[in-house]
Amino acid sequence: MPEPYASPYLVPFDGSFKVTTAATRPPDDGPSKKRLKKRLAECVARFDALQRLLYADNRYALLLVFQAMDAAGKDGTIRAVTSGVNPAGFQVSSFKAPSDQELEHDFLWRTSRQLPERGRVGVFNRSYYEEVLVVRVHPEFLAAQRLPEPGAPGALWKRRFASIRDHEHHLAANGTVVIKFWLNVSKAEQARRFMSRIDEPDKNWKFSVRDVEERGHWKRYMAAYEAALNATSRPAAPWYAIPADDKPYMRWAVVDIIVGTLKRLPLAYPELDPAQREQLSDLRQRLENEP
Questions:
Q1: What percent of the chain has pLDDT over 90?
Q2: Count of CB atoms within 10 A of residue 286's CB?
Q3: Average confidence (pLDDT) over 77-103
Q4: Bridge partners of 242?
Q5: In which order are the strands placed within the sheet that holds 239-243?
Q6: Is 3 in contact with 264 (CB distance < 8 Å)?
Q7: What angle do CA 37, 38, 40 make, to 5 degrees?
Q8: Average pLDDT, stretch 264-291?
Q9: What pLDDT, on the 0 to 100 scale, is given for residue 138?
Q10: DSSP three-state, residue 65
Q11: What confidence category does residue 150 fall into, taking pLDDT thresholds of 50, 70 and 90?
């Protein structure tokens, strides 16, 4: 796999990432909203062309993992990034609370079943990282998993981080390019968006009491994210901590990284050998000579 796409939001591989210093807003000298809209459209068009090339080359798959606090903009970002891309070329999978069937398996099983085929793009709206984020903040969820020897909580998370690193390394070694995005929304902006969901009737359905209750665990979630990103951001599967307080900037930053990553792959349209070209020429002649 090529080196990860260089970005100011790339989470370093040495464990030095700090949530407290990660940006939630774009730089002060960042592009205007009008310019961002144009850049987004240009990048989505490039993504569409590269996705077609990815499909024709048929050696690699692309997996995009999105994690974030509620109201950070995962759904809108996924929609903005994939609009304009051939829908036959990708699949979106959302992962909520595990089902009874999923709890009968290891924590990587349910997402492994949704991995993209070669030539396709897979999008995970939440993922196996829920098992070291939500479950870490709410360890009571572990009871339903019936682990044989859960041991001390600290040891459990280390084992899960090791499993995730091994899993992602395996995917990369077998042609699946993994890019992970943490949409980093501030607590103040999350509150503003929650209030918007309350004030606007057509957004009421998005809001639940649990959303506010989870805000009470904000510090624990931030600690969980910091630990997870430091433990699993590696060249084979890098994390990008994207500022999420400004949605247009966030969406452009995400698709820019996707395009930059795909451009680094040695993708090419298949070339026909002389015999195949001769066969095509014969077939064309037959079509021309049809009555």
A1: 80
A2: 9
A3: 93
A4: 183
A5: 90-94, 121-125, 61-68, 176-184, 239-243
A6: yes
A7: 65
A8: 88
A9: 96
A10: strand
A11: low
* Model confidence pLDDT, tens digit, residues 211-231: 889 999 999 999 999 999 999
Q: What is the pLDDT of residue 204?
A: 82
**DSSP symbols for the chain:** -PPPPP-TTBPPTTS---GGGS-SS--TTPPPHHHHHHHHHHHHHHHHHHHHHHHHH-S-EEEEEEEESTTS-HHHHHHHHHTTS-GGGEEEEE--SPPHHHHTS-TTHHHHTTPPPTT-EEEEES-GGGGGTHHHH-GGGGGGG--S----HHHHHHHHHHHHHHHHHHHHHTTEEEEEEEEE--HHHHHHHHHHHHHSGGGGGG--HHHHHHHTTHHHHHHHHHHHHHHH-BTTB-EEEEE-SSHHHHHHHHHHHHHHHHHTS--------HHHHHHHHHHHHHHHT--
How far apart CA 286 and CA 258 sit, in angstroms, is: 43
Residue type, 113: R
- What are the residues whose beta carbons fall under 8 Å from the beta carbon of 105, sequence distance 6 or more? none
pTM (whole model) above 0.90: yes
Q: What is the pLDDT of residue 77?
A: 97
What are 5-26's pLDDT values in tens digits?
Answer: 999 999 999 999 999 999 999 9
**Which tokens belong to 138?**
């709410």
Give the residue among 181, 189, 179 at the shortest CA–CA distance from 24: 189
| Of 184 and 84, the one with more pLDDT | 184
HEC string of 14-82?
CCCCCHHHCCCCCCCCCCCHHHHHHHHHHHHHHHHHHHHHHHHHCCCEEEEEEEECCCCCHHHHHHHHH
Nearest to 44 by CA among 248, 180, 244: 248
Average pLDDT (145-157) is 82
